[in-house]
């Protein structure tokens, strides 16, 4: 698994569960005030919380800042049937 991600980089900074700064973001697939789905260099990332909103977005640099109360961060395993159905369902909304 480490070999697959060689040369790819992502940093996550979470401050007081209220400000999340991410690098390595390729695209914002979907979002609302309770959940974000991001395509990153290391796979799809789901962020769940309350009152979530984008503070800054710069996809050319791969940077995203999200404000709100963060409850969880979860990478979606592409081989997982339950997870892939969840993110695919979000994409087809």
Automatic annotation (TrEMBL):
Recorded superkingdom: Bacteria
Pfam families the UniProt entry points to: YabP
Gene3D superfamilies the record matches: 2.60.40.2000
Coiled coil region boundaries: none
InterPro entries assigned to the protein according to its UniProt record, in alphabetical order: Spore_YabP, Spore_YabP/YqfC, YabP_sf
Protein known as: Sporulation protein YabP
Organism the protein comes from: Paenibacillus turicensis
